[in-house]
Every structure is written in C-alpha cells, then in structure tokens.
Fold these 2 entries.
Entry 1:
Amino acid sequence: MPDGFKISIKVHYGTPNVDITQEMKEKIKVAMANRYRPVNKALDLSKFHADPILKDYFCGLCKPIVLLAVIHLIEENIPELEALSLNNNKIKMLNFWKNILIN
C-alpha cells in the first residue's frame, strides 16, 4: 500500500459451515423430487451441489451434516428407494455409513 501499511490475509482451507434450515430442507426435497425416477425407484444425487435449485445454498454432500440431512429426508419421503447414486460429490468420509447401514 502507498502509506506502507501491510495487510495480513489468512486463508482457511475447507468448506463452509452449514446450518440445515427448514427452508434449505424444502429446497433439497424439490431437488430430490426432480432427480427421482419412480419406475426404477432410483434417486440420482450426482453432483448434487451443482443443482440449480440449490444455487443459494451450500449443499455439498461431502459435508456429513448435509449428507445425513439428505438421508433423513430420503427416509421420510422416499421409503421405497432401491437405488441411490452419489457419484461426483467428493464424499471422502465413509465410516459413518456403517451406523446407517446397521440401523
């Protein structure tokens, strides 16, 4: 800067914190409804974060809190689901799946 003042910039790597609001849940339900194929009983959540309906929210399934919210919405709204695609969501932590699969 011209006056010699130095600016310190700190950058934290990672994804933003997410609060799952009721409004966000409603948008997630709409996005899931558009991606559900009743003939196959299949739900395609590939690149879910890029869904145009969710553009105002950070809805990355790589965040466990978001993924768990989506799973609960599936349980409540699509109990007949037989196939689920989670491709291209950069899900890295899979150890919480064992608790879901056991229940």
Entry 2:
Amino acid sequence: MQRTLLDEEERQLFEDFLLQEIAEAIRTQILEAEEWVQRAIDFFRKADLDRLLVKLREKYIEQGQVGGQIQLIECTPRERRDIASFLGKTPYRYTVIKLKLSEMDAALQKSGFHCTLPELLEAFFPDQPLITRPQLRAVHVTRQEKFRHSQEALADAQADGTRGRCWLLEGQHGLDWLYGRYKNADVEEQERQLATVKYVATLLNQLPGTSSPVRLGLFAQRTSGDPHSLDPGRPGSYLQKASMPRPRVP
C-alpha cells in the first residue's frame, strides 16, 4: 500500500515536471517570436518603409487574406532599392512599384525575421486591430441572425391566438418591420427595441374589453408599475399607438 502511494506521488511529480517544461518551452517560443517580429518592425522603420506597410495593411484588410497586390507610387531611389533588396530582386527602375502580398509574406518567412505578413502588420500597428472586411461582414451577419432568432423566440413565447402574438407576426409594426428597421443597429439598440416590443405584446394581451374601460394611466400602472409608461415620448409609446387602440376613458 505504501509503495502504491509512493508510485502515485512520483507519477504526479513527474507529470508536474513535464507540464512545467512544456509551459517553459511555450513561453520561450513566444518570446523568441516576439523578438523576431520586433526586429522586423525595427528594420522597416529604419528603412522608412512605413507607407509600404500601410498599403499592405489596407489591402490585407480588404482581402481578408494574404492575396492581391498593392501599388506604391512616387517611390524614392532608397525605397526602390530597399524593397527590392528585401525581396531578393534587382532594384526597381521606375517610381511605381507593384507588389503582391504573397511575395512579401514569403519573403518575411524566408528572412531572418521568421514571421508572417499578418503577424508583422498586427505588431507594427498595435493600436489598430487587424480586423478584415470579411470578418466584419461575418460579425454583421451573425448579429443579424441573432437579432432574428431573438425575435422568433419572443413570438414563440406568446400563446397561440393572443393579440400579442398576432401583432408580432402579422402587425404593420410587428417583427418584420422591427427587423427591417433595426437589423443594422448596434446590439444595445436591438436589445432596447426587443424589450419594447415584448412590453407592447404584453400590453396587447392585457387590454381590457370594451365593456370594462380603464383610464390610460391606470392601465399603464397595472401593466408596468409606472402610470406614465405610455405617455408620449416614453419607450414603447409609438409602437403602442401603432398596434393598439387607446384604452377608452370611462
């Protein structure tokens, strides 16, 4: 029994040692990679090639990948010489340089910097996130889909045949109108509108019958706890007016 416990302790110590070694190796790799990227940054800054990297960044953001090419105009003799030297080419003869992003990426990986073009761009412009247009479009589509799913969930939460559900699915200012108007809004605004629509649907489901009229302020108090929640200018008032008749004052 004692030998078994010792074996388990030794195995645990060995596993801990391996984990520490792996973690240290990863940290070393990260530090070395950061060092090489920093050397690349220093190289391009010393060569005054900032505008080259600006152009490369713009094209990368547009493409969403290492593809396409840029055109650098009015290049100085030094720029033509340094860019050609880095790419392993003879100096450019003309002041306009056309350069493929894939060429620059390959040159960076083959150089002593051992980094990719995206890694260099991300480090060279630390205050400007390297978010591409395709990534932004994907985020935009995802946000729209989430907004639509939230709307559908709101409608599904309403019982069949209720005024609230009918208005959400068929009303002039129901979910289709809401989606068309706010699908491109920011998340906070979408959430505000969903909350408002949910509140209006709740109002519709609690409307008093014509035989039991109630004052608007009292109706608002009963449904929201605020007698002024349906006053003009308050959240939901415009939807409330578009979707339901004003409660008849006795």
